[in-house]
Amino acid sequence: MEEKIALDVVNKNAAGIDIGSRSHWVAVGQTDEEIKEFGVYNENLYELADWLTQHNIKTVAMESTGNYWQNLHAVLISKGFDVTLCNGKFTKNIKGKKTDVKDCQWIQKLHSLGLLSGSFLPDEDTEVLRTFTRHRHNLIKQAASANKKMQKYLRLMNIRLDVVVKDIVGLTGLKIINAIVLGEKDPVKLASLRHYNCRKSEEEIAKALHSNGRKDFLYALKDELDTYKFIQKKIRECDVQIAEKLDEIIGKDPDKQEHHIDPKPYKRVNKNTPKNIDINLKSYQIFKGVDILAIEGLSHNTVLSIISEIGPEGFKKFKTAKHLTSWLRLAPNNKVSGGKVISSKVGKGSNRLKIALRNAANSIGNLKDSTPLRDFFMRINFRKGRVSAITATARKLAVIIWNMVVKGVHYENPEGYLYLDQKRKLGMAKRIKKQINKFGLTNEDLGLNTNTCNTAT
Question: Which residues are registered as beta bridge partners of 59?
Fold first, then answer.
């Protein structure tokens, strides 16, 4: 007699949906009569929801296929269904020929048995803010592409502006490029547009601005300059949308509005940071008194990514900091067989928050002053290399931020933040103390004996 293993049904009245670009296949059971195909238009999505209601479905599972699932997910949530959005790699163990019918049946079976775990989804406000910030990031990448093309056409015109200025779209560079596009050819006049902060002199800049007069390259340069200006305008408009959404989120909660914090002048504001948003204050209010920007290495853009990608409520969806680091693919994926660890590599996958934390970790590794996080980075860097040090430090940052947001633990840097003159004094004092200890000098040797005094005669 053939034995069978029975599994308990965890989710009763469950359905499985195979998401597609042209149609969605829905299974409410394992028979052919319990499977139906629906279109992707808005009316089809509501027909799908009504069909599920007719079969007394309470919970639905679907794969996170591209962005085709988002509209259906929103409709099902509005209709009151419990929707589980799962990663496609958890549903790929089906045996035999792969078809849409078998896929939706397999998803329905796994979900009924409680074998599917849901993916992380932010709240609605965070999702809207995430759309704005991701769009802004894409605009910045487009502006960088236009910047590279302008450098290309300047070099083809034999104008080596990239050699004499640090950034060709800075204060000096943009003035000179605008003048070139308007027809100015005199290198001396172009060099006179130099900003007073530019390190190179007018004479040296003028040497780099002798053009070969190619009109085709000049036309292409003008076209790329117009593209760059247009993108910069769109970035400023997107900044307004982000600022309004942040104010809306803070305005919904009176407790958030009560928090205020002093500015951080030691935090550098680069050219890609939103100019019309006080991210230091906004983040402090959104996280209700938690100062994430106090962590060394974290920039304004990194904090904005944390707010938009996961949000304050998103941290609470992870039971422990280990769950967060595992979701970010920053923790080792240990594979054990026969009592031995056969692999402990960090899992593949890079969402935008992971990239932001890794960039912050790399900045920590570049710090010149000794801090706890920098010392940790250097220890890992010495033993395993810089790539492993960046991953390990990014993981530590995720743990620190989770504890700050969820447990309300304040971050304290024992070294503190010092200005340049304070850093120089502190560094000089450390070097002097090191030399004194090295040569065993005493106060008498240094002439610092306070017991003797000189009297005027």
Answer: 14, 82
**Domain containing 207: what range?**
125-246
> Average pLDDT over the chain, rounded to whole?
88
* Whole-number pLDDT of residue 276: 87
Name the helix (H) or strand (E) containing 373. helix 372-384
Q: Residue 213: what residue type?
A: G
pLDDT of residue 418: 52
Q: How far apart are CA 191 and CA 155, in angstroms?
A: 17
Q: Tell me how far apart the alpha carbons of residues 150 and 153 are, in angstroms, rounded to a whole number.
A: 5
Residues 279 and 388 in one domain: yes
Q: Flag whether pLDDT at 452 surpasses 70.
A: no
CATH code where residue 203 lies: 1.10.287
pTM of the entire predicted model: 0.82
| Contacts of 284 by beta carbon, 8 Å cutoff, 6+ apart | 259, 260, 261, 290, 291, 293
288 shares its domain with 310: yes
State the chain's maximal CA–CA distance in angstroms: 120
For residue 438, name the pLDDT band (cuts at 50, 70, 90).
confident
> Based on the number of CB atoms within 10 Å of its own CB, is 27 exposed (0-12), middle (13-18) or buried (19 or more)?
buried
Buried/exposed 164-200: b ≥16 CB within 10 Å, e otherwise: bbeebbeebbbebbebbbeeeeebeebbebbeeebeb
Q: Which residues contact 91 (CB under 8 A, 6 or more apart)?
A: 63, 103, 106, 107, 110, 116
Contact 119, 64 (CB under 8 A): yes
Question: Average of pLDDT values for 397-407?
Answer: 94
Compute the 3-state secondary structure of the chain and give helix, strand, coil in percent, each to the nearest 5. 55, 5, 40
**Cα 225 from Cα 210, distance rounded (Å):** 19
Q: Residue 51 domain-assigned?
A: yes
* pLDDT tens digits along 217-259: 999 999 999 999 999 999 999 999 999 999 999 999 899 989 9
pLDDT-above-70 percentage for the chain = 93
- Provide the β-strand partners of residue 63: 86
Q: Average of pLDDT values for 179-193?
A: 93
pLDDT at 268: 83
Residue 422 has pLDDT above 70, yes or no: no
List strand residue ranges (DSSP E) for 322-415, in order.
Answer: 335-337, 340-343
How does DSSP assign 31-58, residue by residue?
A: SGGGEEEE-SSHHHHHHHHHHHHHTT--
The tens digit of pLDDT for each residue in 248-259 reads 999 998 999 899
Q: DSSP assignment of 160-192, as one string?
A: -HHHHSS-TTSHHHHHHHHHHHTT---HHHHHT
Number of domains in the chain: 4
